[in-house]
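Journal club prep — side note

Before the paper discussion, L.F. wants everyone to see what a predicted structure for a comparable chain looks like in token form. Sequence:
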Amino acid sequence: MFTAIFIFTLGAMLTLKLWLAMRQIRYVRQHRNVVPAQFQHTTPLPKHQRAADYTIACTFLAVAEVLTSAAILVVLTLLGGLQALNSALTSWLGTGYVGQISLIAAVLVIGSLADLPFTYIRQFVIDERFDFNRMTKTLFLLDLVKGSVLSAILGLPLIFAVLWLMQQAGQGWWLWAAGLWMGFNLLALVLYPTLIAPLFNRFEPLRDETLRVRIENLLKRCQFAAKGLFVMDGSRRSTHGNAYFVGLGAAKRIVFFDTLLARLSNDEIEAVLAHELGHYKRHHITKGLIVMCGMSFALFALLGWLAQCTWFYTGLGVTPSLTESQAHIALTLFFLVLPIFLFFLSPVAKLLSRRNEFEADAFSASLTPADDLVRALVKLHEDNATTLTPDPIYSTFYYSHPPAAQRIAHLLALRHTAQITQ
């Protein structure tokens, strides 16, 4: 029965993803040769067409990635790949923690190797074609090695701890595991700015004195304490620009891509930063952590129940052992199939995210002129080749930020309201 549910859900997800992708490609292509009316004074037609072509290329690549991931999932589950891999590894390394962790690590490596060609194509074919790529193949390889080593250092002890809890902590193991998972994520947020991020990028204090003073004054107005203002060498890898906050508590940092500073004026940078501050002042970060905490406990509770159900294993191509622990099998199967079922919740999650973005935009417009953020958004969409004409249904499923036209219309409405009240 569960096999039928899994096949149906996987088929529905694939059908929906492919339908959405084809809608996006068709919609963007249909609007390729006309700049939307509200952008005709700011966006030249060649840049609009470039964004459309870039979006279409990335969407086609995403389709190939979806199909590849689905094929690997079917091989590992319904075609018995995970069962065979587990038998081979346990016969070689035994049924203890080493053999169990090796299975999980092997599945993660298979997934990473499957993703690698698509990452390479996105960086060195598509981004290269559209003049975004600044990364060398040596740096790409170095990032890959660093990322793999870091994942092993952080991930293997966490996997061991979860497996130990599953086998030693009794029926309520999932409570401890969820708490451990949340603690790990919170610790990573604290350590990321100072220990992890510098492994991949160079961070220097913001040297523009005029801009620094403006930002510090903005932070004081918002009563926001940050550990420092930093510029990241994003141009080593790409011409894409961004700015973000990272860290928790006293470890919070404000980071600007050097590409962003080179492109935006000080007024526009202040408006973008005010938007990011809006996420903190409107408690979006805290709410997100609460939701993540609730989801963690709910999902580990679900895993705790499924791990005891024989049909969960047999329905996914595994014959459970009656004498050996199946914790590693349950954990692997759960995280392999979970994204399929969660995909159908994407519109809800993305809706909440877009609502947060509108609130952050409104916060920015209350501190800085709305026109400054509008100009910044137009430039960022141009520089990142983000299409101005996404398919509405596709964006409902995939866009964590509102499309540019909606954000700008919202900001202009806020400006109009402010003018009336004045």
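L.F.'s comment for the group: The mean pLDDT is 91. Keep this in mind when we get to the figures.
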